Amino acid sequence: MTGLKMEKHIAQNAKKLVHFILLSAPWSVLCYYAEDLRLRVPLQVVPNQAVTNWSHRILMKLGIPNLLHDDVPDLPVDYYTCHFKANKLPWFLGSDRHETFFSSTQRHRILYEILATTPYGNPNTGQVGIERLLSEEVFTAAFPLHDGPYKMPSEELNPPQLTQRQILFHYWAQWSKWKKYQPLDHIRRYFGEKIALYFAWLGFYTGWLFPAAVVGTLVFIIGIFMMFDDIPTQEICNSGGKYQMCPLCKVCPYWNLSTICPMFQVGRLFDHGGTVFFSIFMALWSVTFLEYWKRKNATLTYRWDCYDFEDIEERPRPQFTAMAPMTTQNPITGEEEPYFPMRNRCKRIFAGSMIIIMMIAVVVMFLISIILYRAIIAVVVSRSGNFLVVASASRIASLTGSVVNLIFILILSKIYIALAHFLTKWEMHRTQTMFEDAFTFKVFIFEFINFYSSPIYIAFFKGRFVGYPGHYNKLLGIRNEDCGAGGCLIELAQELLVIMVGKQIINNVQEILIPKLKSWWHNRNNVSQRNKKGQDQIMTPLWESDYELLPYEGLFNEYLEMVLQFGFITIFVAACPLAPLFALLNNWVEIRLDAQKFVCEYRRPVAERAQGIGIWFNILEVITHLAVTSNAFLIAFTSDFLPRLYYQYTHSSNLQGYIDFSLAYAPKSYVSEYNVTCRYRAYREQSGRYSLAYWNLLAIRLGFIIAFEHVVFFIARMIDMMVPDIPEVVEIKVKREHYLAKQALAENKALIEVIDVSKPTPLAEKAP
């Protein structure tokens, strides 16, 4: 680390001494690494840089104030930029002001690059960089310093006197700012593009949830009105002892259909024609949301100068550089870079995939265990002898099974994430983006199965392979699980609410309490020690107060939580129209919780650049396509929408007698054996064979799936074609910046590099 300035301080902790080493880089070091890292520096100020969205511009033209807009002070200036070259320094804007020419985040990147790539032992064994030293506990932490305390001093300060951190706390992290736009340019200036893009995506997603929540709430309200006028519901509630139903399990009693009146009414809130419309709406909503996020992402990455970051600027990971056995030439930059043979990486990826498959098998085993648990609990509750409890045996088994499933999900998730991180490091991915994409893919595959396996089972498999009275199918000697008295759709809605809302509540409680508990545990001795010395909190050096904050843990868990939520509100939306509303309320809280964590509770992270949200976008696209198929099958096979429609056209337009139509009689052999006549839900003849109505409905269901998918995918494709991925104004600005970068350097007598045709190297003055 030759050339760095070092300053040492010692702080007395209650149990030990803490040695602080403060590093800073002189101008010569900054220039050398700025060129090596291809940092972008300003050429000239962008004119007319007021950034507003379309709604704000419309309100301005109408003379209506935008209540969501907030006048945040010290708006960052936007520049035309190009890559830094030391021999062209005089022609960059502000190059005579060495203290401010490089931004604080750029200085942090340079220092971290030096720390991450400096060997401290044998490089061939990976003894390189600060991350390895941290893992071996040689150092306890390495972090940039915050920009002073986040709290405002007791006396009032004018906005220009506030620090960047105080601006973010006052205009972003406060709960009172929940209804204001996020100051994305300020976030980017302080935390870097990667974190700013996460908050940009989260805010964009939350804004788009609003119309989905409104439509879903209206569909739910329509269900409330339909619930009381529904003829089949009235037939069940007024049936008394007319329909004696066969037992739902081996030791369950016979029961009257009228006892499920309340549950059937609740089921009508979700199971009606409006949910079909809402499923189509959400499929098109998700496609349109992703299309417009691509445009938003292109606009932001252009404005923040990371439009082509992954192709040109991103460097190999220090860990990869240390362990790679050979080098090769980068086809884009022409520079020699470390290289790990693809054949060896494929072998490692294959081995890791086998471990992942084993973990997925563990999840499937847990799912089977939950299925057996529900069946066993239903039997135990049915034998309790309490009439009220016996009547609710199926609901009790389903609800407790959902809670147990959620606990298993959270435990397995922690174990698998640690395993996936180890495997991804072993696979030797070249860049940080490639590493994070591989890690994200592994974890999401597992989490998808972990979180969605139980809802998928309830939606598409539960109650499908039960058999009929006297000829029930069994799994491991236990009768296959049937849908509860209210049907599988209401069970699916219950499962979704338990997992989705329960997970959101647990996550938010964790995000509020755990950082505070960690901070208290970390600081309990330090605070008492300072009190003994009579030190005031304000007098504590910044490096000591920042050391007492929590370490930055990355964005992976934040993205994972939101993407799983996106899956819940799209894949199973036909069963729970209120899911977008719950997601919207959660995200309003989530934005401020995350803002407070970054501003107040975390150490300042090293600013990272990014070109988007990474592989998460591809995962969102896959979820969107799965959602179309899932909702088509959900409406066709799980809901009563198509059977009711079929009955209306073939029997009675007002659904009179629908309940009797949907129930089959137990076979005569069963009646003679048990001396009782009972009904069960199925389209079968009394002999047990499928009836003509079953085959007609099967054809209608399959036809509906094909029509639903083709119509939705066709409209989605049209939306994709009509909405350009990159706004035209951004394309023009990119071309103009290329021209201005060359023109500005040419006008200032920049040297023209000669390109060797056989070994082309990029022009340094060329701005990507």
Report strand order across the widest sheet. Answer: 1-2
What is the helix content?
Answer: 55-70%
Please summarize the sheet with the most strands.
Answer: 2 strands, antiparallel
Number of helices: 27
Overall strand count: 14
Q: Please tell me the overall pLDDT.
A: 81
- Indicate the multimeric state: single chain
Plain-language structure description:
The chain has a domain at 194-722. The two termini are 31 Å apart. The radius of gyration is 31 Å and the shape is elongated. The protein is mainly α. Mean pLDDT is 81; it is low at 749-768. The strands form seven sheets. A two-stranded antiparallel sheet has the order 1-2. Helix 22 runs antiparallel to helix 26.
In short:
With 768 residues, this protein is mainly alpha-helical.
Any key phrases for this structure?
mainly alpha, two-stranded antiparallel ribbon, two-stranded antiparallel sheet
Topology:
Layout: E1 5-12, E2 17-24, H1 27-36, E3 40-45, H2 54-62, E4 79-83, H3 98-101, H4 104-117, H5 130-135, H6 164-173, H7 184-191, H8 193-229, H9 231-237, E5 244-245, E6 255-256, H10 261-268, H11 273-303, H12 309-312, H13 318-323, E7 326-329, E8 336-339, H14 342-382, H15 387-391, H16 393-426, H17 432-460, E9 467-468, E10 471-472, E11 474-475, E12 478-479, H18 488-533, H19 542-547, H20 556-571, H21 579-601, H22 615-638, H23 641-650, H24 658-662, E13 663-665, H25 668-674, E14 679-681, H26 692-722, H27 728-747
Antiparallel strand pairs: 1-2, 3-4, 5-6, 7-8, 9-10, 11-12, 13-14
